[in-house]
Each structure stands twice: as C-alpha cells, then as structure tokens.
Amino acid sequence: QLVENFYGSTCPNVEAIVRQVVATKLSQTFVTVPATLRLFFHDCFVEGCDASVLIASPNNDAEKDAPDNLSLAGDGFDTVIKAKQAVEAQCPGVVSCADILTIAARDVVVLAGGFPFVVELGRRDGLVSQASRVAGNLPEPNFDLNSLNAMFAKHNLSQLDMIALSGAHTIGFSHCNRFANRIYSFSSSSPVDPTLDSNYTQQLLLSCPQNVDPSIAINMDPVTPQTFDNTYFQNLVRGKGLFTSDQVLFTDPDSQPTVNDFARNPSVFNGAFVTAMRKLGRVDVKTGNQGEIRLDCTRFNS
Ligand code: HEM
Ligand SMILES: [Ca+2]
Ligand SMILES: [Ca+2]
C-alpha cells in the first residue's frame, strides 16, 4: 500500500528537506552514512519499518536499549531527529518518522556514491518499542548461510536480497569484538579462520590487538571504506570479508555465484541492492490509520 509520491499534495518538498539535512550532517561526519543505513535495517527487522528503534525510554527498556542495538551509532538517530524537525517546520504532523528514516537511508547511500533510486512512502509510526522484543530478530556476525537466509526469509527477503543488502558493509565500522574469534580463537587446530586472507589477517591483528579498547572500531571495507560500491564483494572473493556472515557468502557454494556476479558487475549489484532496499522498506509496514504520525521521533504522541 506504499506509494512513491505519498506526500505529493501534503508535503511536496519532504524529500528535498530531508536530503538537505542529510547532506549537512554528512558534511560534519561521515558516520552519518553507515549509521543511518544500519538504523533503517535494524528498524525494519523489529516490528517492521515503523521507527520503533527511535523511541527513547527513561527506563532504558526501549528497542534501542537492547544489546543488539547498543552499537547503533548516535549520528543515525541524530540525522532522523534533525530531518524530522526540519520537515515539521514546513508540514506539521504529516510525515512519519518511519518515512523520514527511509528517505534518509536512501539519501546516504546515494551521497556516498551509490545508485540513485526512488523510495515508496506512506508508513505510519509504531506504538511499540521494547528492548525485550529484539533478541532473535537481528542477524549475528557468526551466522552461517542457512541462518542468514532463514532470518531474511521471515521478512519476504530472498537469498539474493540478503546478499545484496549485505553489500551495505561496503561502508562503515565494526568493533573488534565482532570478529575477534576469527583471528584469535577460531578452532582448536587453528586460531585464525582459514578462509581469511593472510595479509588481511595481519592488518586485523594490528588494528585489534588482544584486550584492545572496546570502543575501537575499524573499517568494514578495507579498500573503499567511504564509497558505496561493489568492492565489498571483490573483498569477499579475496578472503577479505570481516565477519563470518560476510565471508560465508563466498565460501558457501550456494551463494558464491551471486557474490562473483556482484563482484564483476557493479550494475548487477546496484540493481539488486535497490530492489532489496525497496523490499526491506515494505517489511511489516503500518499504513492507513494504523499507528500514528509521531511529532517527536523519540516519543510516542501520548
Ligand atoms: C546479513 C546479516 C548482517 C549481519 C550479521 C550484520 C552485522 C553487523 C555488525 C556485527 C556490525 C558492526 C557493529 C559494530 O560493531 O559497531 C554491522 C555494521 C553495519 N551494518 Fe550490518 N549486518 C548485517 C546486515 C546488514 C544490512 C542488511 C545492512 C543495511 C542494509 C547493514 C548495514 C550495516 C552498516 C552500514 C554497518 C556500519 C555501521 C556503522 O559504521 O555505524 N548490515 N553489521
Ligand atoms: Ca521497527
Ligand atoms: Ca566500499
């Protein structure tokens, strides 16, 4: 029930307003890009794309307080909150926070060099945001192909969509503890994951020494960390996937052909990514008179 021009008569400038805020924020910090994109994903996989992840609770029991969401960078939240304020100034009470997050997630991809695409709009903001409802709904970096497929399939996303969306790891950062097992304690016969490229392993050992400061984060794409491109897939072919869940896309024969295809053909990746992002944006959306149009993205209206 989402449509591309949902605010055509009620807030015709919404996309321009959001883009302006996102561009300004990006000029202040690059983290705006990965933080906003990941925020969109984490929102959609819990209660659907409904801005549930943005709610702040005085008791620290909202979705954003769940362990799986604690590493969401603040700049993503800040981007949406600022964009909402700018939109409210021109079209009060009309545009949902869920739609603003969707537009902003598209904008950061495009501003980082990704392929332009049109988003569907008309989402309403959710009325539920609970930390306790997060566990088991977001993929973990040690997942294998079957677990990844199963989790995405619950939201009508195919293996092809899942692989394309994993391409989001072409930008952004990870903390060392998310992959430390691959370089220090992989198995009894080998501390290092044998699917890891040896030069890359050395690089990771240097960036993430044992007992490293837990706040240290490293680039997930060691080659073009600030460009939204298909280099992520080229890295996988070369054994430079950061997480088990990244590298498995190449090592599993079932997904390897797609990785090779995306690595060789940027336009094939771009097309698949856009299709998958639009599908991700439809996950469990509330429309019509469901939910509400939040006035402040961090609070329910009442
Ligand atoms: C396929 C399963 C996925 C797994 C297991 C996974 C896991 C992770 C992990 C562990 C991090 C590092 C967090 C940290 O230490 O700070 C991360 C970062 C990130 N993920 Fe994923 N992710 C997956 C899919 C996705 C999808 C579908 C998207 C978006 C479409 C996405 C976008 C990002 C971005 C942009 C970052 C960087 C965040 C930043 O720099 O602030 N990921 N992911
Ligand atoms: Ca949500
Ligand atoms: Ca890149």
UniProtKB/TrEMBL annotation:
Its cofactor is heme b; Ca(2+). Residues 1-301 form the Plant heme peroxidase family profile domain. Keywords: Calcium, Disulfide bond, Glycoprotein, Heme, Hydrogen peroxide, Iron, Metal-binding, Oxidoreductase, Peroxidase, Secreted, Signal. Binds 1 heme b (iron(II)-protoporphyrin IX) group per subunit. GO terms for biological process: hydrogen peroxide catabolic process; response to oxidative stress. It comes from the Eukaryota. It holds the Pfam family peroxidase. Heme b binds at H169. Its EC number is 1.11.1.7. Ca(2+) 2 binds at T170, D221, T224, D229. The record marks R38 as: Transition state stabilizer. It is found in: Secreted. Belongs to the peroxidase family. Classical plant (class III) peroxidase subfamily. Belongs to the peroxidase family. Ascorbate peroxidase subfamily. This is Peroxidase. It comes from Olea europaea subsp. europaea. The lineage of its organism: Eukaryota, Viridiplantae, Streptophyta, Embryophyta, Tracheophyta.
